[in-house]
Write a structure and sequence with these properties.
Length: about 300
Amino acid sequence: MKSVFRAPVAALGLLAFLTNCATTVTEKEKPTNTSQLMAPPTAARPDSTGAATTAPDARTTGAANGVAATPGTAVGTDAVSDAATAAALAADKPDPNAPSASVASAEREKEKKMTAADYRIMLSDAEASLIVNPKNPRALLQRAKAKSYLKQYKEALPDYTAAIRYLRNNPDAYYNRGVNRLMLKQYKAAQTDFSSAIKYRPDDKESLFGRGVARMQMYQYKAAVGDFTKAIQLDSAYADAWEYRGISYSSFDKLSEARRDLERATQLNPEAAKSLHRYIGNDEGHAPIKAPVTRAVGGVHPKPGQH
């Protein structure tokens, strides 16, 4: 099966990492959006994602933000030594160096526009910093993101985990690892990572969206609806959240709610009309192309687009 993300969206992102879904769902059965959670290497949202976005702009954010530095710029070597960061870690409070949800979202959007060459530069910069300080958490996170963008998902995972040992209160680190895990179809672990990201940044709509996608993959449609609803409350124009919530509703026979959401998604993103026709049918009386999935079969995914 392909992953819930659609190509190409690069935000470490949710993202742009996400993967696909449904009970032996074929690629045609996935949502059609092209957004994403985080921006991974040419991966798109879990058909949205977030997710996928999750990724701060490597070209504009510095090491202080806990993400990538501008290609060609070295990452800071002592990112967690300041008193504020140490105090936050001790109190289990959000990393004071992490950007706000709105800034993180904007950074992810920019990162989607980066090229493979940019990602390779990001990787090179991170490795240069790690030669100087092998335990530099910001450089570890940057290298992990670069690998994710370059579709080296398995190789990226150890770096994310190492970075989180030092940045265990950093929402971006969890968000990005969550998207990476979605791409690896590690849905339960991805859900846990997105929950951690939300703990430290409750108003991050893309982390909420990412967790909703992970829950869809595990056929937890009602729980997914709750996450998509919160994302919509934070951004009423979040097309992917409307679309995925509609698909989730259709999966447990809330067809009027599903129609409402999918129609709204279509207003915001015309491509969502494919999901509207596939899961609800249309006003001319045509039946849905694909009946809503109501139970899991073999742990495949629920809905997302193509990788």
